[in-house]
Amino acid sequence: MRDHAWLALRIQSAVRIGITIALFVMNMTVFPPRDHVALVYTIMWCYAGVNLLLMTARWARMTPIGAALGPVVLDLAVITTVLMLSGGFPEDTSNYITLFDDLYFLVPILAAFQLYPYVTAFAGVVSVAIYITAAVAAAPAPDWVYLITHAAFIAMVSLCCVLFSDVQRSRVSTIADLVRQRSVLLGRVITLEEDERRKISEVLHDGALQSVLAAKLDAEEISEAGPREDISGCLARLEGALADAARQLRSSVTELHPDQVELAGLERATRSLFEEGAARGGFEVEISCRSTGPTPVDELLYRAASEFLSNIVKHARADRVVVRLDVTAERARLEVVDDGTGIPPGQLAARAAEGHIGVSSQRVRVEGMGGRFTLKDAQPRGTAAIIELPVPPTDGSQCRSGAGGR
Description:
Blueprint: H1 2-29, H2 37-56, H3 64-85, H4 106-111, H5 117-137, H6 144-206, H7 208-224, H8 232-256, H9 260-264, H10 266-281, E1 284-290, H11 298-316, E2 320-327, E3 331-338, H12 347-353, H13 358-368, E4 372-377, E5 383-390
Helix pairs in contact: 1-2, 1-3, 2-3, 3-5, 5-6, 7-8, 10-11, 11-13
């Protein structure tokens, strides 16, 4: 709005300069003022000079309201002064043509450029009031029919300008909101990409990398062993470490594969995800599923389940996790409950400030699709994460199963 205010001020000033020059030419040739001719033209040229300054200068301290309201006051002051000095209020209008009192029509029109409806309304009301007041104070008394008719037309033009200004301001505000939302979404996308890279790094560091390092130590021990030294134990550990690294890498690739849900289905992918997570985290897991088939929200549910599982493995120290997935023709519901340590107050905000926005990003995605994200304490201890989403109708079948692991 500040940028628009400066642009509108320059356009208004250019229009005022053009109008001033046109009036000067017309009054010099066709409709010269009756009184104070030199003073009237001096005011007109000073007015054009002020507008030239407004059009070319940049006033750092001028606010958008000041840029909208200041020129309105200047317009009214100049028009009224010139009108009174030039004798522009005729007693008999039968053979009268005026240009100066018609300028009151331009005040609300020019004010509408700034997209502040209340400033435009102020310009219209004050224009009508000043026009009538100046006409009444003039001598001789004006033609009242002409005066009231003129004032009514100024009021109608002002009303149209207010409505136009309000519509245009609404459009500019909508565009500004879209630009702001685009910037926010772009920032979130960048943050999510960084979070995904951090997550991959943590998965590889905490899993397969440790097994590879252990295998490296066993390989070094084997290479340093003597000819007659028994290395069967080292070989067994080396084989186990490499097998464990391969299993962890396979699990990570499966979890991070973008088509995992599409290839295996939501129920199977979720089951595999939590069973492997239970093996890593050392807890029991129970999974129940009722699904109507592939839906547009399957990928979102799977990513949210993966984020919940990652937090459980890293932070919860849980003994048991219950996963309930319920997808119907109209709604989907995912509930993950653990009996771990829970989430201390303020921890999510603190971790988000540190750049760990996994849970926050899931909340944004869910609420962005019209769903509801709930994170609360479970009883008697632990955390319950619940996602509810609307689902478009799809064809499918239902399944229900349970699994346990240690």
